[in-house]
Structures are given as structure tokens and as C-alpha cells.
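Appendix B, Record 12. Input sequence as logged:
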Amino acid sequence: MGHLEQRYDEALAQVPRLDSEDDPLERRMREVCYLHLTRFVRMLLDRKDRLSMATGLEVRVPFCDHRLVEYVFNTPWSLKTFDGREKSLLRAATQDLLPRSVVQRVKSPYPSTQDPAYVVELQTQVRDLLSSDNNPALDLLDRARLQQITATEPGRITTAERNGLERTLDLAVWTDLEDPTLILSSGV
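Logged structural output:
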């Protein structure tokens, strides 16, 4: 089993289970929600903080209040989507408080940079990292694959490859800042 699969299995093992949860869809959506809350939301909140503070704004996220999150987390998926749409509970709870156009608005994903120059810059920075040969993160990365991605025409880069370039740079910065030590136990 590879590292990614092992970490995924470890993450799934942390998901709180309900004895009454025997529907496979309910079980899977609980896993997805848990992984989203414990892994992805932290990155989104960090990004929100950096982007808002860079412009002198303090952005509040009331739906991330831990009491609300804990309460709604244990709500069955069938109730969260009772009308066949995402955010059914939120829509129902706010229908008397907000204009209909707001309540019925289609969910939009977190915005990502669409400027093609962004991918070019990612490729340039990863190329620079690969040529520096002094960052400890390089020992953990597939250099050949990264070289292949940085040589790809920017318009042909997939979302997964773009995310890989971003995570590569994140890892490189983290290893620079934290200077971690990797201790391998014998027999591994």
C-alpha cells in the first residue's frame, strides 16, 4: 500500500460512525463531509484569511461556527438534501430571512485563478525548485513527473497537475520554514 492510500485509510478510520447508519450513501457522505471539514476547510479558511487581510478586510464565516458545524455534521445526508439540492437545510432555515433570489442561488465553487499566466508562474517556480537541488522536499517528490508537468504547454495542464504544482511549492516552503527531520525506523 502506498503512502497516499495509507493516509486515506487512516483518515477514514477517524470518521465518527453512527450505529444507526446502515445506508451506504449516508455512510459515504459522512466520510466525505468529515474529510472535507478536517482537511480541506482548513486550507480554504487560511486562503480566505490571507486574501482578505491583504486587502485590509476581516471576513467572517458564521457557518463555520464549531457549534453549528458539530450539530449539522450529525444530520443525515437525506435531510441535508431533502429537496434534491445541495444546502437544503440552509435554504429552508433562511427562506423567511433572505430574498428568494439569494435563497435559490445556485452554489458556486470557491474561485480559482483563471489567468493562464498563473500556471506559467507555477511551472517557472517548480522548475526553479528542481534546479536548485537544495530543498529537502525534493527527496520526497517525483522529479521526473514534475519536469514533465513543467514542460507541458500551460493550456494543457490538468486541474490535478496544477494542484500538484501548488502542493509541491507548498511543501517546499514548509520544509524551508519548519526544517523537519525524517526519522525512518528500521524494518520499514
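The mean pLDDT is 89.
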